[in-house]
Design goal:
Distance between the termini: 49 Å
Strand order of the largest sheet: 1-2
Strand content: under 5%
Number of strands: 2
Amino acid sequence: MNARDVFETHFHSAEMLLRVYRLLESDEGPLQDHAIMPQLRELIACAPDEELILLLNELFVGVVRERAELKVKFFKRDNLDLLLRQAVVAACSALDVYMPQLLREYLPDVIRIRQRNFMPIDGEVKSLMADFRLKLEDIWPLAEAADEGERWDFITRRILDYMTDKTLSNEAGITATLALLGVEKPWVKIAARAGETETPLRDKLRRVVKRRNDIVHRADRAAADPMGPPQAIDFVWTQNHVGAVQTIALACFDLTTTRVAELKHPIAPRVKPDDEA
């Protein structure tokens, strides 16, 4: 699978959580005394005293039978909000897997083509690579490599090893990843590719990453009030921010593949004929 397929495979769970939420969520909530209940009891031929829960909205009609061992409280809005929180976590986890995969897939080609010019001299990449060092035992494989390509491949492997414990799925990490892959002004181009404005798109990523951290580390309590109640969450906010994660990931893939193709097959400058000179 290419990097985009890897992302979409992991991101699918976030989409499914949102869909399940929409199936189970209802303004009226789970029902036990709806007018249709007698007909439903007759339809499923259940005992008169069996506890049934009716789930009813514009997308879904369902009956939960007693043997499911789920109480009405399970389908209340506060409980269903757990699905939204897990969708946030799943979307960010997909990005956690995706960004390193994007580097592993395309950095070898970028370094082989650009060689010593692959490394931006400032910005997020410089900060990310500040602690990168080659060890003494790395010198001999470099010196003994049969050709120049092998030496650059060795450096690529060391960079990828260094990146394994770095966070690449936040704003700075995405900037650094695309810059390493030869994409200049990454967020300007991500926003243009997505048909969005740069600042709001970056803000969405910051918010959803922060929210993921609140959910994972504090059961969705704010860092400023870790002992307080969980923060409110709703479908619209979650859909919007989870969607932003997908938009950013797909834009990164398109920008990377386009840039690598340009590096592999540069367009020669047009030479003017003598009569145009």
